[in-house]
Amino acid sequence: MTINNVAIYLRKSRAEDGLTDAESLENHRNVLTEIAERNSWKYEIFEEIGSSMSISERPQLRILLDSVTNKYIYDAVLVMDVDRLSRDRYDSSLIMKILRDNDVKIVTADGKITNLRDENDALMTDFKDIFSNYEYKQITKRMIRGKEASARKGRWSSGRVPLGYVYNKDTGMLDIDEDKAPIIREIFHMYANGTGTHFISLEMNKRGYRGAMGKPFGGKSIRDIITNEIYLGNATLRKFIKAGNTYKLRPEEEHIRHEGIYPAIVEKELFESVQRRYESQKMKPNRAKAGTHSLSGLVRCGYCDKVHAIQTRPTKGKVLKGCSKRDLITGVLCKNHGILYEKVMEEVFKDLSKYSATLDETVERLLEDKTMYLNSKDRELEALESQLKTIEAQLKRINYMFMNDLLSEEELGEMKPQKVKEKDHILKRITEVKELTVDDKLEEYEKVSKTLKNILDNREVLSDKDLNRLLSSVINRIVLYNYKDKDVEPRIVIEFK
Fold first, then answer.
1. Is the domain of 132 the same as that of 186?
2. Which is nearest to 172 in space by CA: 159, 150, 155?
3. From 429's CA, which of 253, 357, 390, 483 has a CA 20 to 30 Å away?
4. Per-residue pLDDT for 132 more than 50?
5. Does 293 have pLDDT greater than 90?
6. What pLDDT is recorded for position 406?
7. pLDDT at 343
């Protein structure tokens, strides 16, 4: 097969760690584009900065492979060497299979063209994968030993430098950043004087200050600062070990601890005062756990998805409070107003009655014509897959915001568990639907119908806790739209499971 179109894949080599990422990639780019131009090949460049082995952490490679699989536009992949694609044997096998199945050759900088459909070429590629994987592991071992030796000497080897410090390349130690250290001292003083972490983050953002990565402060980033003993000059290094794509805490005996190894930014007395207040705040019970109402955890803001809290007031009785979520940067509150609790309950029971009647009709039709279920099953699976994609995208955004300090720990605690719960429910539902027979479906409908009738018939005698449990078993969430200047009348949308 003639080669006309190639995908150039660039990734920094560990052998060139003396160069910057940009310099290393530029060298590779010049070499590979010259080869493509010399052979009159049309090319598209996929450029990766980083040295991760895993496909999951290399977005450009994933795009390239997707193009190979779905667009069929490349005759070959042009790389500096085969191991630029991957040194991980599992990933390498997957990559080679995709290229082989789509008849895409590999061209390396030395001019060798590998046809993966040729048994001899494929065998040699497998041998190179084995040696590359071994080389990677040896390099990794040497890097780990080097980091441990540096840590024992007190040299900074824990990645990102904490806000308020700068890394000294000559000594390998941390020096005080005189421009940023005052921010740290101000945060400690504000917390010691009674200001909460969320309001400290708002104040810092309002003043134009930013965190170590240039991102706005959040409650979590403030808590990370006030509990970090680095600001006393102490450091515990080698606390975590990478396991796949996550980090796990090492056993305490493997930690490398140094007292007063770096210059302190805050005084010991201030630091200890802050720790005492922080520990006392942690011991306070969560108000949300104090009691359960019939609608606890079910009613969410239609504009920012925050759970609406329930409160009992002397004159109005129970009410759903207005949304109090505040934008981290602007400090502006969400203006989705609250509503009387009974108004929501009235809408809930009205919709429950309609849903119960609809379910009874569905059961009757299904008993008359069981083939109807096969069509509804396909539609339900399609809808579930669509919901799953939406939830997964939302979880990715939530994780990104939390890791970049755009969400506080409280906000993460409110948003993520609900989304994870929804995802688990959808995954479980997909499995169930795939396995369900018509008789299973009828049994499921009857079970839901029984729950609905139990709620409708026994509303007055069920405890708040039992009613909340039953409602949560049939309702995914209740969405409230009551935003000032947007909603003329409050709107309540009930999403059934």
1. no
2. 155
3. 357
4. no
5. no
6. 64
7. 92
- Could you tell me the end-to-end alpha-carbon distance of the chain, in angstroms, rounded to an integer? 54
Quick one: 170 and 65 in the same domain?
A: no
- Same domain, yes or no: 36 and 146: yes
> How many Å apart are CA 156 and CA 173, to the nearest integer?
6
Distance, CA of 264 to CA of 304 (rounded, Å): 40
List all residues 6 or more positions away from 288 whose beta carbon is below 8 Å from its beta carbon: 296, 309
Q: Are residues 352 and 227 in the same domain?
A: no
Q: Are strands 475-481 and 299-301 parallel, antiparallel or unpaired?
A: parallel
C-alpha–C-alpha distance, residues 464 and 21, integer Å:
60
Residues 365 and 376: their CA atoms lie apart, in Å, by 12
Given a cut of 70, whether residue 284 has pLDDT beyond it is no
Mean pLDDT of 66-79: 83
Find the CATH number of the domain harbouring 173: 3.90.1750.20
Q: DSSP 3-state helix, strand, coil percentages of the chain (rounded to 5)?
A: 50, 15, 35
| CA nearest to 474, candidates 457, 460, 453 | 453
Report if residue 53 sits inside a domain: yes
Residues 142 and 159 in one domain: no
pLDDT at 173 over 80: yes
Distance CA 241, CA 90 (A): 22
The reply to whether 368 and 468 lie within a common domain is yes
What is the reported pLDDT for 410?
Answer: 62
Mean pLDDT rounded to a whole number for the chain:
79
Please give the structure tokens belonging to residue 67.
């193009």
Do 387 and 407 share a structural domain? yes
Total-model pTM: 0.43
Are 336 and 474 within one domain? yes
For residue 397, give its domain range. 310-496
Tokens representing residue 347 in the block: 């809408």
Q: Residue 312: name the closest of 439, 464, 445 by CA.
A: 464
pLDDT at residue 23 in the model: 59
pLDDT at 49 over 70: no
User: For 47, phi and psi rounded to 5 degrees?
Assistant: -115, 125
Residue pair 137/101 in contact (Cβ under 8 Å)? The answer is no
Distance CA 361, CA 356 (A): 9
